[in-house]
From TrEMBL:
The lineage of its organism: Bacteria, Pseudomonadati, Pseudomonadota, Betaproteobacteria, Burkholderiales. The gene is ahpF. Homodimer. Coiled coil: none annotated. Belongs to the class-II pyridine nucleotide-disulfide oxidoreductase family. This is Alkyl hydroperoxide reductase subunit F. It comes from Castellaniella denitrificans.
Length: 306
């Protein structure tokens, strides 16, 4: 039986594992893919004290830091069920069952894709998902934001201050963002809003994005916008489907946590992109992971007198 079992091996899980192991308690990490989302990114320029690094390099550094401690890493294993109790059980897709006194859920999230030709091919080469991360890479350039909900409109407002021009593309016949955001967006001189537009393709020259194709859903006409970047903002989906019915989730599927990372289940904590904590960033996930581990340790010293 573990004292702390971390489910998920991204920045949140890695930080939680290091903090737990440094308390000298039995710590395990089970991860479908150790490293998490950072493995899919290229430049990381906003992890404070690291001026610039690459995603895969950062992923290796996370693993090395965890491996410097006595942590049982179970990589390439997917958790499929959580069973609360005095000893909490985590069932794996392989059929194995792990037991722990406390569990830290840090299964992260994934960006919803639009699934059009060019999206995968030009990912990190013009196709981006995170304006806080990649916005500055498009300084002075032309970009599109796909998605007219709150995140898309926020992204367009944010990017308009950095890039040369922003085209906001919305599938429906109206934007869905809060009115105050829409008003702000419409006040900006370098933003074009296109509604009833179905993105059909992201064009490139083999190296980088050069344009975006869309169909006007009213007329059926095909259009093309010349640009250098496309930000896809149609939703961030937390990897929490396996927790439905056991841990309280928000209407977006995020694990509801308090200021210490405590979930609705005693002894179960959570951190990172999978939770209700706003702003999905590496430094935030890592900080939340550390916090959840300290809270789990606190829970252990308060509950185990035996
Ligand atoms: P994740 O990194 O998503 O890790 C989740 C972990 O849980 C993984 O190990 C995964 O395999 C595992 N997992 C999932 N489900 C299960 C399961 N059922 N059982 C077991 N394991 C499971 N942020 C920045 O701060 N700066 C950037 O420059 C930046 N660039 C980005 C670029 C891209 C393309 C993307 C996609 C994201 C970027 N982000 C960036 C966001 C950042 O990567 C995330 O905020 C951060 O990785 C969240 O960490 P996490 O540990 O919560 O989750």
């Amino acid at each position: 039986e573990f004292d702390v079992l971390v489910v998920g091996g991204g920045p949140a899980g890695a930080a939680a594992a290091v903090y737990a192991a440094r308390k000298g308690i039995r710590t395990g990490v089970v991860a479908e893919r150790f490293g998490g989302q950072v493995l899919d990114t290229m430049a990381i320029e906003n992890y404070i004290s690291v001026l610039e690094t690459e995603g895969p390099k950062f992923g290796v550094a996370l693993e090395q830091h965890v491996k410097a401690y006595e942590v049982d890493i179970m990589n390439l294993q997917r958790a499929s069920r959580l069973v609360p109790g005095r000893s909490i059980q985590v069932e794996l897709a392989s059929g194995a069952v792990l037991k722990s006194k406390t569990v830290i859920l840090s299964t992260g999230a994934r960006w919803r894709q639009i699934n059009v030709p060019g999206e995968d091919e030009y990912r990190n080469r013009g196709v981006a998902y995170c304006p806080h991360c990649d916005g500055p890479l498009f300084k002075g350039k032309r970009v599109a934001v796909i998605g007219g909900g709150n995140s898309g409109v926020e992204a367009a407002i944010d990017l308009a201050g950095i890039v040369g021009h922003v085209t906001l593309i919305e599938f429906g016949d109206a934007l869905r963002a809060d009115e105050v955001l829409q008003r702000k967006l419409r006040s900006l001189p370098n933003v074009t809003i296109i509604t009833s537009a179905q993105t059909t393709e992201i064009h490139g020259d083999g190296k980088r994005v050069t344009g975006l194709g869309y169909k006007d859903r009213a007329s059926g006409d095909a259009h093309r916008v010349e640009l250098e970047g496309v930000f896809i903002q149609i939703g961030l989906v937390p990897n929490t489907e396996w927790l439905k019915g056991t841990v309280e989730l928000s209407k977006h599927g995020e694990i509801v946590v308090d200021a210490r990372g405590q979930t609705s289940v005693p002894g179960v904590f959570a951190a990172g992109d999978a939770t209700t904590v706003p702003y999905k960033q590496i430094i935030i996930a890592a900080g939340e992971g550390a916090k959840a581990a300290l809270a789990a340790f606190d829970h252990l010293i308060r509950s185990s007198v035996d």
